[in-house]
Amino acid sequence: MTTRIRPSSKRCAVIGGSGFLGRHLVERLLEKGYSVAVFDIAQRYEVPGVAFHQGDLCDKQALLKVLKDVSLVFHCASPSPACDDRNLFWKVNVEGTRTVIQACQEARVQKLVLTSSASVVFEGIDIKNGKEDLPYAKRPIDYYTETKIQQEKVVLEACSKENDFLTVAIRPHGIFGPRDPLLVPILVDTARKGKMKFIIGDGTNLVDFTYVDNVVHGHILAAEHLKPDSPLCGKAYHITNDEPIRFWDFMSQVLVGLGYDAPRYHLPYALVYGIAMLLWLITFLLRPLVNIKPTFTPMRVALAGTHHYYSCSRAKQDMGYRPVVKQAYQKDGRNFRDTPCMGVASPTYSTIYTLTHTLGQSVIGDGATDAGAKFGP
């Protein structure tokens, strides 16, 4: 079966294009000559040549207007992993994604690339060089992960060569980079409050932090290799920097780069996890009486104290993936101390922007030209 020809094979839509990853994806698609439309609940920037459409993910008619004559859709919309609203996660990640699929099928879209998450297989215990054949988590660590599992299942099951509708899921992990709204800003806020003095566990646990350019590169590679005769159809792919780093080494590099002391004191993992579990249980029992949203949760302790890094071997084999940014952590950031801005001598957005560039600035090969371009996406 041959793929239907659209007026332009490079006419695409990015659902969630106003977000951190979505915006980077839009910018790279434009550089590669794609015609791009953005669909999101809010418009946060303007780019010449990009048609922005504001609407609700569950509004199929609004989606159909955007998807007219579009052959490729990237779906990277999701509430923040830090959100604690299960109903919102379910509405966006599950019900909204079902609506996206229906709209794509009615609009005769050929390809759907989903931003999933490596966390769909993580249950708070060690994962070392995990592959895509790991089972979905039976005990997801949070609402985000619970609904991302269902979302990925729905998208991959919708893949149909007979109906000329192909799907693939990209599973990034620990995305960081310029304009990062979560990882580095949350770390800075925690350091300001004096809460980054302790290392959970022995500090040797390896994790994947993935530079945003590599995640974007993986999405575009998947889209360009997704064909009826390709192995990508209906499959998920881990996309990382392919260089796991000690979690606490990464934290220390960011903190020192921003002028804070690196954590030095060790606390036993089992003790900290037990305390977090007790606090979570107390807040759960008190929830009918008091609306408390704990920030010190078992999930966060697990993310900070366990191994969780993933193999990219399937992506390398099936679509020729290799990171366009390597050695993304090797810069120590010592030149990025607190930078005065507007008369305030404190870490600023521009400082964080510069630091994240520094943490991921070693472009390899021809990655800057031809090669392409939370702990959830």
Automatic annotation (TrEMBL):
Keywords: Acetylation, Cholesterol biosynthesis, Cholesterol metabolism, Endoplasmic reticulum, Lipid biosynthesis, Lipid droplet, Lipid metabolism, Membrane, NAD, Oxidoreductase, Steroid biosynthesis, Steroid metabolism, Sterol biosynthesis, Sterol metabolism, Transmembrane, Transmembrane helix. The chain crosses the membrane at residues 270-290. Residues 13-267 form the 3-beta hydroxysteroid dehydrogenase/isomerase domain. Pfam families: 3Beta_HSD. GO terms for biological process: cholesterol biosynthetic process. GO terms for molecular function: 3-beta-hydroxysteroid dehydrogenase [NAD(P)+]/C4-decarboxylase activity. It is found in: Endoplasmic reticulum membrane; Lipid droplet. It comes from the Eukaryota. GO terms for cellular component: endoplasmic reticulum membrane; lipid droplet. The keyword Transmembrane applies. Its main location: endoplasmic reticulum. Pathway: Steroid biosynthesis; zymosterol biosynthesis; zymosterol from lanosterol: step 4/6. Signal peptide: none annotated. It is a single-pass membrane protein. Its EC number is 1.1.1.170. It catalyses: 4beta-methylzymosterol-4alpha-carboxylate + NADP(+) = 3-dehydro-4-methylzymosterol + CO2 + NADPH; 4alpha-carboxy-5alpha-cholest-8-ene-3beta-ol + NAD(+) = 5alpha-cholest-8-en-3-one + CO2 + NADH; a 3beta-hydroxysteroid-4alpha-carboxylate + NADP(+) = a 3-oxosteroid + CO2 + NADPH; 4alpha-carboxyzymosterol + NAD(+) = zymosterone + CO2 + NADH. Homodimer. Belongs to the 3-beta-HSD family. PANTHER family: BIFUNCTIONAL POLYMYXIN RESISTANCE PROTEIN ARNA, SHORT CHAIN DEHYDROGENASE_REDUCTASE FAMILY 42E, MEMBER 2. This is Sterol-4-alpha-carboxylate 3-dehydrogenase, decarboxylating.
